[in-house]
Specification:
18% strand, 415 residues, 14 strands, six-stranded parallel β-sheet, eight-stranded mixed β-sheet, alpha/beta
């Protein structure tokens, strides 16, 4: 069923404004940019929970030209599979109950988290004649299989593969967040090159990512100005390589000039907390998920950052916190497959080091090398910042979404 005078594009995702995790800020940034450029925009999303500072958020409101409809759903503990599955299922059911909200839009932009959410967009496309844009942050079920969450030949894996066959056939456009993911989707999902675009995620430019005195911060004033701070920020979950990081910390635990900061969430962050407590590692500190000024502060007082993925995830995902690292302009220690786009960015631009999974000794040696060679650290810092400005700056990425939407609307109008 097609209707005249439809609005342009609606965002279908679990997290959205005013939540502060990247899976909320990225869709919101895109929606806001499209609205500012003359498009009529809406969003159907989950009601804010733990990643929100506001106590009372309206179910329905207009923000910066975006008509936001929020749905409430169950929120059980996320530390076990059952709780996460119940949350996802509850959210999907709640969205289905509001599927009529989607009928007034020409384009539905749906995200891969939770991975079954695109089913609703597919149904809406069939019912309302909408265009469907699928934004792939992660590739399922492969990422679940490689991380041990699902069996390679299990029933859920087979069902996911059947679902994927349908999704990638009916999607009008697919967005991959990195070039290696684009290649993977073309080879393993048979997506035509003309149908898939590689648009990376981004981070808001601080404009002044210079170092600040550690004494001037709320959380990090106890660190000395001569301490070499190595930070891991964001999610440390099923897909991240905690083993290599933990072994490197153990190798450097007696070097008081090196200080490790871990801040974020994820099931493996518990292992970092246990490591500190049980082995009494004094140069390791663990914080909860940081945002706002505290996150800005930790970026500015750090000397280098770590990003990691377990082996076997080439082409399946891209850690979004890396773009904040590049923005801040510090060397990046990358523990993952060197073929990934992030690793190649670092190698080609001399912006840090790429370490193979399991090479904790190499990681520890690189940290000591950066600590002792200030000229090398300075050069890598400048190169890291250049990567951000050339590739992951917010405006550059959002212009690509603008072009995608403009093309789809022009095709629809011509049809």
């Amino acid at each position: 069923m097609k209707r005249e005078n439809k609005r342009d594009v609606v965002f279908l995702c679990q997290y959205f404004y005013p939540e502060y995790v990247s899976s909320a800020t990225l869709p919101y940034d895109t929606a806001k940019y499209l609205s500012e450029n003359g498009y009529t925009v809406g969003a159907l999303c989950g009601y804010p929970g733990e990643y929100c500072n506001s106590a009372n958020v309206p179910i329905d409101e207009n923000v910066n030209g975006i008509h936001i409809r929020r749905v409430k759903y169950l929120r059980l503990g996320r530390r076990n599979k059952v709780g996460r599955c119940v949350n996802f299922l509850s959210f999907v059911i709640a969205v289905i109950c509001h599927i009529g909200f989607l009928k007034d839009y020409k384009i539905i932009m749906v995200y891969s988290n939770p991975p079954v959410l695109p089913v609703i967009a597919m149904l809406a496309k069939k019912l309302f004649g909408s265009k469907l844009v699928f934004v792939s942050y992660d590739v399922y079920p492969e990422i679940a299989v490689q991380s041990g969450v699902m069996g390679e030949n299990g029933i859920f894996t087979k069902l996911f593969n059947l679902y994927n066959d349908r999704l990638f056939r009916v999607a009008d456009s697919v967005v991959a967040v990195c070039e290696d993911m684009k290649d993977y989707l073309q080879k393993h999902r048979n997506v035509k090159e003309s149908k898939v675009a590689s648009i990376p995620n981004w981070y808001e430019d601080d404009k002044s990512p210079n170092r600040i005195p550690r004494s001037a911060t709320r959380l990090f004033s106890d660190y000395g100005e001569d301490d070499f701070i190595v930070s891991y920020l964001g999610n440390l979950g099923t897909c991240q390589d905690a083993d290599t990081l933990i072994d490197a910390i153990r190798l450097l635990k007696n070097d008081g000039s090196v200080q490790f900061i871990f801040a974020g969430h994820g099931n493996k962050m518990l292992r970092i907390k246990e490591l500190k407590e049980k082995e009494r590692i004094s140069n390791l500190n663990v914080f909860e998920f940081l945002h706002g000024k505290d996150f800005s502060d930790v970026l500015k007082i750090s000397d280098c950052y770590i990003v990691s993925l377990i082996d076997g995830l080439y082409g399946l995902c891209a850690p979004s916190k890396t773009y904040s690292y590049f923005m801040a302009g510090r060397p990046v220690m990358c523990v993952m497959d060197e073929r990934t786009e992030i690793a190649q960015d670092i190698i080609r631009n001399n912006a840090g080091f790429v370490v193979k999974n399991g090479d904790s000794k190499v990681l520890a040696e690189y940290i000591k090398l950066l600590k002792n060679d200030k000229d090398m650290a300075s050069l890598m810092s400048k190169n890291s910042r250049k990567i951000f400005l050339n590739k992951y700056e917010k405006e550059k990425c959002l212009k690509q979404y603008h072009s995608l939407i403009a093309q789809l609307l022009s095709v629809q109008k011509a049809a």
